[in-house]
Protein: DDE-1 domain-containing protein
Amino acid sequence: KKHPVAAYILDACIAEVVGGHFRSKADAYSLNEFVHWVCEVHECSIIYLWNLMKQREPRLGQCVRIQPRMALSDEQKADRVAYSRYMLKQSQQGRLLDYIWIDQKKTWIRPAVGQKFWGLKGAQKPEEFTGVIESDLLTPEFKDWRTYVYVAVSARLGPFLICMCTGTGGKASGVQDNTTWKTMRGTWAKTPPTGEIRAVIKEAWREISTHPDWPKGVEPVWSLDNVSVHNSALKGWDDPNGWRIRAGIQGTVMQPPSYSPDLHHVVEHAIANMTTGFKDMLFYGAMDPTAQVALHAGQVRMPTMDEFFDMQCEAFFTS
Structure:
């Protein structure tokens, strides 16, 4: 069954999507009342409406837009305020020196190609510009290569730990499918599961407990953002027979509220610096054109994932 939509309504929907900088049609449907209303009135799906819109504005099929910030509830806002006040007191007492901030980052080796997006919200008018990055890593061999790492940073020690985790790999990368970590359901994990995150915490504890710059007798405060896999990993932290006690790990846990990565900005800032440095190495120093020609001619071997990880480690520890 066809659901005709008038041209002026389609133009209005396009204006709403462009002005709202929605990342996907699902976001436009759930977050924009007008687009949702059009689908309801015309008894059509957002997929059908989106296809009609793309016929009038082909750029919708190429554009990536900034996703609007999630609308927080009053309770979530109160949690953010309470956490911020607590952290200010911790800062005044000098306790932030004892925090260990841990988070993860997945990085694609091969950059996206041909993306276009409109200017950020608040600009005088939407301006289209191309987001293409010229790189020797745009060849098909690197299409699905990515690293998945967990990092740990501290005000006392700086960036002191980076671990390659489940999720790192690519078809031609030489990295085998994960045969170490399983999910709670017993299937092989595709991203770091609870057990692997606990292993990262154990490794971080080994690092700080033997580090000469970490004061003896000072227990760390472990900070991981508030997502389900981290909550599962930290479950049983204070259990006398739990995994943390058996591993001899000391310290307490302090997590930011849900949907608040901006309040976990210490490690987020370190990850952003690492990513910038790593991308600079990839785009401007990893493979010069001469090496690329030799690669395609079969005169040199493909770079390995370990070499890319070493570059990421260098960017992490020096940025």
About this structure: The chain has a mean pLDDT of 80. The CA atoms of residues 85 and 91 lie 10 Å apart.
